[in-house]
Write a structure and sequence with these properties.
By secondary structure, the chain is of the alpha/beta class. The protein has helices spanning 10-18, 32-41, 46-65, 91-101, 137-151, 175-179, 183-192, and strands at residues 3-5, 23-25, 69-79, 84-85, 105-116, 119-132, 168-172. Helix content is 40%, strand content 25%. A hairpin with a 4-residue loop joins β3 (69-79) and β4. It is globular and about 50 Å long.
Length: 198
């Protein structure tokens, strides 16, 4: 039985497929925005927010489909002061986000939760720290205009595997984590479960 990805994320599906995992993507039908706002109102940290959103997706879909392993994943971006950025709503918002990130460090928290029969069985949250080089307004505006279709659903407004690499002066952490999934830890669990050969 394939792993069920509770997401329509192109990047996560591509990572799993490239790693040789039989996977099927299904929308979890979670009201993510309402859940996110409620958790933020409760003062939850960026790490715990990513974990809670990943669990909600995995558990919700697992309850719906019954048998099988369901993977939920989410990613949250936090600035050094703990404040969080969401995905941009439009190009002007993306420009504002990149101006805010310019010359500063931020952290990406990428969470994954596997559920079976409606219960969470495994979870991991990985962290990457990224240093954005000082960006000129001209660079930001041109980058957003040319990359908008690729970055419109990306927290942070970049795809590290593409032109987004030009934004950074230093990166600490796994590229998989930056792309939205703690893949190496997930592969370990799938080997333990016998889904992948050891």
């Amino acid at each position: 039985m394939p792993l069920i990805l509770a997401s329509k994320s192109r990047a996560r599906l591509a990572m799993l497929t490239a790693a040789g995992i039989a996977v099927e993507a299904v929308a979890p039908n979670v009201d993510e925005e309402s859940l996110k706002h409620g958790l933020k109102d409760e003062g939850v940290t960026a790490r715990n927010l990513a974990d809670a959103l990943a669990e909600a997706k995995a558990v919700r879909l697992s309850r719906r489909i019954g048998a099988g392993l369901v993977l939920g994943a989410d990613q949250v971006l936090a600035l050094e002061d703990g404040s969080m950025l969401d995905k941009p709503v439009d190009q002007a918002d993306a420009v504002a986000h990149l101006k805010l990130l310019s010359g500063r460090k931020h952290k990406l928290f990428s969470a994954a939760v596997i559920a079976e029969q409606g219960q969470p069985l495994w979870r991991h949250v990985d962290i990457a720290t990224l240093s954005v080089r000082p960006l000129s307004d001209t660079f930001i505006e041109h980058y957003v205009e040319t990359e908008w279709d690729n970055i419109r659903y990306c927290v942070g407004c970049y795809e590290i595997e593409g032109r987004g690499a030009q934004l950074f002066s230093a990166i600490q952490g796994s590229q998989f984590t930056i792309m939205g999934l703690p893949l190496l830890h997930l592969l370990d669990y799938l080997r333990i479960r016998g889904i992948l050969p050891s």
